[in-house]
Amino acid sequence: MTAAVARDVPLAETGLQLDGLRCAGCVHRVEQALRALPGVASASVSYATHRAWVQHERKRTDTAALVACVEGLGYAATPYDPETVDRPASVHAREAWVRLLVASFLAANVMLVSLGLYLGTGSIDEATRRGLRWLAIALSIPSVTWCAAPFWRGAWGGLRRRELTLDVPVVLGFATSFAVSIVGTLAETTHVFADSASMIVFLILLGRTLEGGARARAASAVERFVRLAPETAQRRTARGLETVPAASLAVGDLVVVAPGQAIPTDGRVARGATEVDESLLSGESQPVVRSVGEAVTGGTRNVLAEIDVVVTARVEAGTFARIASLLEHAQAERPRVQRLVDRISGIFAPAVLVAAGATAVAWALAGAPALQVALIAASVLIVACPCALGLATPVAIVAAIGRAAGSGILFKSGAAVERCAGVGVALLDKTGTLTEGRFSIAEIVPGDGIDVATVLGAAAAAEGASTHPIAAAICGAAERAGLLVEEATPRHVVPGDGVVAGGAQPGARQLLVGSRGLLAEHGISVAPELEETAGKAADRGESLAFVAERGAGDDCVLGLIGLADLPRADAATAVRRLGDLGVEVALVSGDHRTAVAQAAARAGILEYAAEVSPEGKVDAVRARRHAGTKASRTILVAGDGVNDAAALAAADVGVAFTRGADVAIHAADVIVNAPRLGALADAVELARTALGRIRENLSLALLYNAVAVPLAALGFLHPLSAAVAMGLSSIAVTANSLRLLGWRSRALEPRSERP
What global pTM score does this model have? Predict the structure, then answer.
C-alpha cells in the first residue's frame, strides 16, 4: 500500500543502489516498506540490477529516510550515481573471487588430509592421526569463517527479518560438522567431518560468485550508454573554433560537425546540408537529408558534408538522456521472477531444521550419550544440507550458458536462461535484427541494349570511394562481380538526390547515380517501361538509384538499381521455428511502413507495426504483457539500436546482436554473436531444455533428502556415510546438468522420411 501523497506537490525521484537482495521476496519486502513511507508515491525495485527508484515528496521523506528504511530491513543502500555504479560492483566481484579461490584451496587440502585419514585407518599411528585431524580443522577455520562470511551474514539477516533462507541450513550444516569435528578430535572418535564443512562452503560459494558477477556487469548499462555520445564538440565562436566538453554546451551555442562525426546534442542545422545516419535511434537504414532549419538529434552521425548546428537542448536534457532515463525505469519494471530454489527453500529449510532438532530431542530422551546425539543431529544436517539443491540450478545454468556460447549465443545471467524458457511472444526490430542492417542490391534493371555489368560498373565508377551506405553496396557488388572500375572524377554530391561524377566542361562524359529528380534536373528523361519497373520496386520498399550517362549530346539512362535491407538468409526458417515452439512473432520497427511490410512478408511474419518510436516499443511490450494469456506474457524483444534499448530492458528477455549499439548490447539479457536469426529459436529451445534439467535436478535433490533424512534420523547413517551420500547426490545432479553440453538444436537433427 502506498502512503497518501498530496496533490499538486512536485515529486522528486531518487535512485538507490541496493545490496543483500537474495530473491524476489526481498524485492517485494523492500518495495512494500518504501511505499509505506509518508509522501512516497511509487517505488519499484529491480532484482536484476539491485536498484530501486522512488518517487516521493522530498519535504516529507528525504533520501536519508529512504536509505534508513532499507537498512532497517537488513539490506545495504546508497544513493544511485551512474558515474560510480561500477565501482562498488567491481569491489564486490573481486572480493567474491578471492573468497572462492581461497575456499577452493582450503577445500582441496582438507579433502587430501581427510582422504589420508580414511585410507590410512589401522596403518597410521595415533600421534600422526591426531596431528592430521588438527591440521584439517586448522585448514577449515578460514573456510567456515572468512570464506563463509556471506552465508553467515545472509543467515543472520534472514533471522533478523524472521525468515529461514537457504543460508540457515547451509550455515548450520558446515558449522555443526565443524563443531563435531572439534569435539570428535578431543574425544578421539573414529572420524571427523572438517572436509564436509569446507567443501560445502566452496560449492555454494561457487554458485553465488557466478551469479554476482553477472549482476555486476548488468549494473553498468547506463554508464556505457552515456559513453555513446561524443565527449567533446567543436564550438564556433568569434575567435574561431574551440574544442569543449559536450556537457558544457548551452542552448544557442553553434557547433561544427564534420563528416563522420557524431552530433554532440540535439539542435537545428544553421549552415549547410548533409545526410545523417539516424539508424541507431529510428531504425531507418537509409541516411536522412538534413538542411538549414531542420532538427538533428544528439548521438546521430553526420555522413556527407560539414554542417553548423545550433544547440537546442543541453546534453543532460537531450534525446540520449531521455532514453537513458527510459532504460533505467524499464529495467525496474521487469517482472520479478523468483528462482526455483528460493521457492522450495521456504518449505525445505524450516523442515530440515525441525527434523534435526526433533532427532536430537528424541535421541536425548531415549538416553543416548551427548556426543552420539550431536553426531546423529550432524548426520541429519549434513545429509540434508542443500548442497545438491544448491547445485541443481547453477550447474545446469553454467552448462547451458557454455553450450549456448558454442552456438554464438551469450546469456548474461542464469535468470535470463530461466526467463527465456518461458517466452511466448517475440517482438523483432527490422534493421539489423530481422535484416542484415546494410543495403544490398535487390535487382539491376538495364535499359534497352545495355547489360547488367555496364550499369553496375558505371554506378561504381560514379560512387568512387564514398562512404555512403548506397555507395558501399554498389561498390561492394562491383568488386564481388570482378569488375575493373576506374573512378570518375571530379565528384559532386547532391544531398538527398545522388552524385554527379566526371568533367563539367561541355561535351565531357558525366555519370549520374541517384533519384529521378537528379536526372530531370540534368534534362534526362526516363523511359516509360523503366518508370513502371521503378514504381513496382518502390512498392516493394526498395531504394532506387537511376544510373545515367551524359556527354557529346548523347544523354541516356543506363538502367536502374534497386537496393534494400534484405532479411537475413535464415529469417523465414527462424520465424517458422519460433512458431513451432509456440512463440508468436511480430515485427515492430521505426522504419517506414512500406519497408516494414515488405520485410515482414519476406520473413513470413503476419503481424507488424511501422514508424514506432522508442517509447512506442516499450508501450508495445506492456500492452502484450497485459493483453496476453498467462502462457504468452513472457515477452522477448530482439533489437540492435539505441531506439531498442528501452524495449530490451522492459521485456522479460532482451536479445541484441553484437553489431548493434553498445547500449542495446548492455541492456539485453542475451547477446547473439552468430549472424543468423535462428539463434533466437536456439536460445528459447536450449533454455527450455535447461529448465527441464533444473526440474529434474530439484526432483533428484528432494527425493534424495526424502530418503536420506529419515535414515539419518533413525541412526542408520553415520556422519561419514551422510557426507558420502551428500557427495553422491551432488555428483548425480552435476552429471545430469552436464548432459546439456551435448545439446543439439532440433533444426540440426535429421528429419525422418515420411512414407
Answer: 0.58
